[in-house]
Amino acid sequence: MLYLVHMIVDIPDSLPAEEAARIKAEEKAYSQDLQRSGKWPHIWRVVGQYANYSVFDVESNEELHNLLSALPLFPYMQISVTPLATHPSAI
Amino acid sequence: MLYLVHMIVDIPDSLPAEEAARIKAEEKAYSQDLQRSGKWPHIWRVVGQYANYSVFDVESNEELHNLLSALPLFPYMQISVTPLATHPSAI
Amino acid sequence: MLYLVHMIVDIPDSLPAEEAARIKAEEKAYSQDLQRSGKWPHIWRVVGQYANYSVFDVESNEELHNLLSALPLFPYMQISVTPLATHPSAI
Amino acid sequence: MLYLVHMIVDIPDSLPAEEAARIKAEEKAYSQDLQRSGKWPHIWRVVGQYANYSVFDVESNEELHNLLSALPLFPYMQISVTPLATHPSAI
Amino acid sequence: MLYLVHMIVDIPDSLPAEEAARIKAEEKAYSQDLQRSGKWPHIWRVVGQYANYSVFDVESNEELHNLLSALPLFPYMQISVTPLATHPSAI
Amino acid sequence: MLYLVHMIVDIPDSLPAEEAARIKAEEKAYSQDLQRSGKWPHIWRVVGQYANYSVFDVESNEELHNLLSALPLFPYMQISVTPLATHPSAI
Amino acid sequence: MLYLVHMIVDIPDSLPAEEAARIKAEEKAYSQDLQRSGKWPHIWRVVGQYANYSVFDVESNEELHNLLSALPLFPYMQISVTPLATHPSAI
Amino acid sequence: MLYLVHMIVDIPDSLPAEEAARIKAEEKAYSQDLQRSGKWPHIWRVVGQYANYSVFDVESNEELHNLLSALPLFPYMQISVTPLATHPSAI
Amino acid sequence: MLYLVHMIVDIPDSLPAEEAARIKAEEKAYSQDLQRSGKWPHIWRVVGQYANYSVFDVESNEELHNLLSALPLFPYMQISVTPLATHPSAI
Amino acid sequence: MLYLVHMIVDIPDSLPAEEAARIKAEEKAYSQDLQRSGKWPHIWRVVGQYANYSVFDVESNEELHNLLSALPLFPYMQISVTPLATHPSAI
C-alpha cells in the first residue's frame, strides 16, 4: 500500500552542531535500512530545499505512523502524507 | 532527470459527455505510451480525488513541458511541477 | 484501518433539480449501505455547511478510493483524506 | 453534542526534557479520564504528525472550552474546533 | 449558547432577478423572525461586502444547523461557524 | 460605530511568569474599564483557543486604534479589525 | 476618517458588452462625483490588474458602506476595507 | 527599470474557438513587437502550465500598466507584478 | 511614480529595550525627512496593528529599494510593494 | 536549461554579526563566480525585501540542487524553484 510523504527538515540553531550531525547520521542509517527492506522504495531530494518527497510501501496507516514517528529527525520535520491508489491508466 | 508532477482534473459540465469520454480515452492511450517509453515511470491516483501524482523521467524542462502540454486533458487540468534530485541517503 | 474524510458538496445550478434529487437519493442509499456494512462508521454534518466529516474503516487505500469514487455525488464533491492511527493515549 | 477537535502539538526546545515528560504524562492521564467519562469518545493520531483529531461529546460550548483549556499541553497546542450535527444520511 | 457566524452571499447571475428578489424577501422575514425570537441576537453588515457577521444564541449545534440550513439564501452562501464561550474578563 | 475585533494572544516563553501574570491582570482591569464605559460592549472567548472576538463601539478609527494599542497585551497579540455597519434586515 | 479600500473588478462574460459599457460609464461618473466631494481623495490603478487601491474620507463605517454598496460595479467587485489612523511619525 | 511579471492565462470555454485563435495570434504579434522594441526582454513558459514569467524593461509604472492592459489576452489573464532593482552581488 | 507600501513591524524580544527605542527614534527622524522631501507623501497606521500603509513617490524601482532598505527598522519589518498607476477615473 | 529561483533570506538574530558578515561575503563571491561562469545569468533584488529572483542556466535538476545547496546562505534561505521552457512567442 503506497503513500506519498513530503518531509521538510528544519533543525533549530539551538541544537548543538555535533548533536545535529549525530542525528543526521542516524537518520541516514535508519532510512537506508527501510529502503533495503522495501518499505521506503523512493526518496527524492526537492531541488533547492532541505526537503524530500518519498514513497512508502507498508501494510497499514499504523505501520506508516510507526515508521515515520521513529525517524531520528522526526522532531525537526514537518510531514504530510497523501494516500495513493492504483491509477486506472497505469500499465 | 526526474520531476514530481501533480495533476488535478476538472472537466467542466459544459463539455458534452461523449467528447469527455473521447478525450479521456485519448489521455489513457497517450499516458500508457509514455509509460511504456520509460518517460512516465510512475502514476498514482490520489485517494478520494480526481487527481494524480506522477513521476516523469525526461531529458530537459523543455521535453517535460512538451509532454505535459500535449496531454489530451491538459486544458482541463491544474498542473504543478517539482524538480527532483538524488537524495544523499538514497541507496 | 481508519481515515478521516472531509467532503464538501457543491452541486452546480446547471444540474436539473430532478436529477440532483435522484443523485442525492442514491447517495443516501449508498452511504447507508456502507454504514450498515461497518465500512463507514461515522458521518457528521458540519454545522452551517453542505459538508460532512466522516470516518471510514477499510482494508486499504485502494478500497477507500474505490468506495469514495463510487459515491453518486463524487463528481460534485471536494474530498480530502487524512490517514489515522491509534493514539497512544487512547483507552 | 459533538465537536471535531484538531490539536497540533508543538513543544518548544526551551522546555526542559523532564518538564516536557511530566506534562505529557499529565496530559495522558487527563485525556484518559475524559475518555472514560464519555466526554472524549474518540482520539486518533494523524499519521506522520504530532497531532490528533478528536471527537468531544459535551453539554455546551462552555464545557468544551473548559475541558480544552485545562489540557496540560494546552499552552503548546494549536487547536481548532468544528461543531458537528446529525447527518441526514446517518443510520 | 453563543456562536459567531460569518455569511458571505454570492447569488449567481443565472438566477432570474425576480426569483432573487423573492428569496431575499423571504430571507429578510426569516431573519427578522429569528431576531425577534432571541435566537439571532446580532446581525451586522461587513463594510464594503455582501456579507454579515452574526451572533446566534441557541440550545445546541443541532439547532444552529437547522436554523442555518433553512435560510432561504443558504444555497448561495458560504458560512463559517465559531463556537463562543464566556470570556474570563467579561463583566 | 461598531467594529468586530479578533485578538489572538501569544505570550512568548521568554517572558517571566510573574511579568506575564502582572500584564494579564492589567489587561483584565483595562478591559473591564472599557466594558463598563460602553466602548467594549462584547467580548467572547473563542472555544479551544487563547483568543477572543470582541465588538467595540467607538467614535472613530482613531479612537479604536488608541484603545487597542494601549492594551497591556498588545505587544503579544495579533489583531484584525472588521468595520461593521447596520444590516438592512436588523430589527 | 480614512479607510484604504481595495477593489478587484471581475465582470462576467455573460454580461452583454453594452450593459457592461453603460455600468462602467456610470461607475466613472459616480466615482468622479465622490472624488469632487472630497470623500474619495485617492484612487490608483494597481499595475497589471483590473483593480484599484483607494482612500476614502468619510464620517463613519455606515457612510462608507453606503458609498461602496452604491457603486455601479459593486455586484462585480471583490472589496476589502482597512481602517486607517494617524501614524505617530506622520508630519 | 525592470519588473518580473507573472501571467496565468485562463480562456473561458464560452469563448468561440475562432475568436480565441484570433486573440492568441494578436497576442503573439503584440508580444513579439514589444520584445523587438527591447521593452519585453524575457518571456519564459512555466513548465506544465499555461502561464509565463516575463521581464519588462520600461520607463515607469505607468508605461508598464499601459503595455500590460493592452495585451489582447489581458481580459483572460491573472497578472502579478514584482518591481526589481539591482542586486548588490550582480556583476 | 507612486507605490503602495505595506510595512509590518515585528521587533524581537531579544532586542534590548534601549536599542529598540533608539532604532525607533531613528526611524521616525528618517521617515519625517523623507516625508518633508516629498518622497513619502502618505503614511497611515493600520488600526489595531503595528503596521502601516504608505505611499512613496520616487523616480524608479531602484530609488524605492534604496529608501526602504535604509529604513532603521528594515531588519525587523516585512514589506510588500504594489506599483501604482493613474486610474482612468481619477480627476 | 533555465529555472526561475526565488530566494528569501532570513538570518537569525542569534548569528553573531561577524559570522553573518563573513557568510555574506562568501555568498557574494560564490554568486559572482557562478554569474561569471554563465550558470547564474540573472539576479535581481526584489524591491523592499531581503530577497531575490534569479535565473539559473544549468544542465540538470541535479546540477541546480548542487549549486543551490552549496550557497553559503543556504541554511538561512527559503528557496523555491520554477522550471522554465521556451515560450512559443519568444523571438
Describe the protein in words.
10 copies of one chain form a homodecamer. By secondary structure, chain A is an alpha+beta fold. Chain A has one domain (about 1-80): Alpha-Beta Plaits (2-Layer Sandwich), CATH 3.30.70. Chain A is about 35% helix and about 35% strand. Chain A is built from 2 helices and 4 strands, in the order βαββαβ. Chain A has helices at about 15-35, 60-70; strands at about 1-10, 40-45, 50-55, 75-85. Chain A has a 4-stranded antiparallel sheet, with no helix packed on it. In chain A, a hairpin with a 4-residue loop joins β2 (about 40-45) and β3 (about 50-55). The longest helix of chain A has 21 residues, at about 15-35. The mean pLDDT of chain A is about 95. Chains A, B, C, D, E, F, G, H, I, J: Keywords: Aromatic hydrocarbons catabolism, Isomerase. Chains A, B, C, D, E, F, G, H, I, J: One of its GO terms (biological process) is beta-ketoadipate pathway. Chains A, B, C, D, E, F, G, H, I, J: Its EC number is 5.3.3.4. Chains A, B, C, D, E, F, G, H, I, J: It comes from Alcaligenes phenolicus. Chains A, B, C, D, E, F, G, H, I, J: Pathway: Aromatic compound metabolism; beta-ketoadipate pathway; 5-oxo-4,5-dihydro-2-furylacetate from catechol: step 3/3.
